[in-house]
Amino acid sequence: MTSPTTSAGLRVALIQLAYDDSETVPERTARVVDLVRAQRGHDLVVLPELWPMGGFDYRAWPDKAEATDGPVVKALAEAAQDAGVLLHGGSIVERPADELGPEGKGLWNTSVVLSADGALASTYRKIHRFGFAGGEPLLMEAGADLVLIELPNGSHAALSTCYDLRFPELYRAQIDQGATVFLIPAAWPMARIEHWRLLLRARAIEDQALVIACNTAGTHAGTEMGGRSAVIAPSGEVLAEAGTGEEVLSVQIPAGLVESARESFPVLSDRRL
Ligand SMILES: NC(=O)CCC(=O)C(=O)O
């Protein structure tokens, strides 16, 4: 995969959604769809991990799981089309109609990307499952595939999700496939928010990539979420960072950011494999 010599600028909106346990999935979906529609004029809109089913609401996952042609993704597709944006819809608890996976669990933490014409452009199944003996490893299958998408400015973005951020080898594999941007939805708790902030900058600096990371806010299933969604330049400079509550972060990313960083300080060419 080759990226353009100089990528154009990109206008991005990160919807750092706050939620608690009081909303139903249809209610939250309706709220999110309105927020997405309001982002017309952006090239790319990003939502957090597992916002429909609740990132830490493990017990609800089996009942709330949907297929990627289910009501949540359909609503997101319509919103992307109405707003005329490429939409990273965060992730859902995916239950495909006809697949159980190697461990027989039948659920995945699946990110969905909708194009501006409302088509499902791409999906990514979270590779590193969070929760040790409980949570994701107990209930979900692990994804196995690297996924890259083309952004409206022609650059290539690699998909990962939340806990994946702790595994730098994933991001090295993604840049080896041509990624210059990392798109990372998350449900990262307040208790470890400084890890999030540090690791986002680390991934940007070590891989000389643009990091676009959208976290969750609010408190659900007894876990306070940390917010601090961010856009980080390959230099490690924080171009924009959200606070800890619900917020839409709107960022104009300058043209050629990654290319000029890699050209002026070509550290990646000194790798010894
Ligand atoms: N949803 C997650 O993957 C949470 C990750 C997390 O809390 C951590 O890595 O710390």
From TrEMBL:
Keyword Hydrolase annotated: yes
InterPro entries in the cross-refs: C-N_Hydrolase, C-N_Hydrolase_sf, UPF0012_CS
One MF annotation (Gene Ontology) recorded for this entry: hydrolase activity
UniProt-listed SUPFAM superfamilies: Carbon-nitrogen hydrolase
Ranges that cross the membrane: none
Record-linked PANTHER family: DEAMINATED GLUTATHIONE AMIDASE (PTHR23088:SF27), NITRILASE-RELATED (PTHR23088)
Name of protein: Carbon-nitrogen family hydrolase
Organism: Luteipulveratus flavus
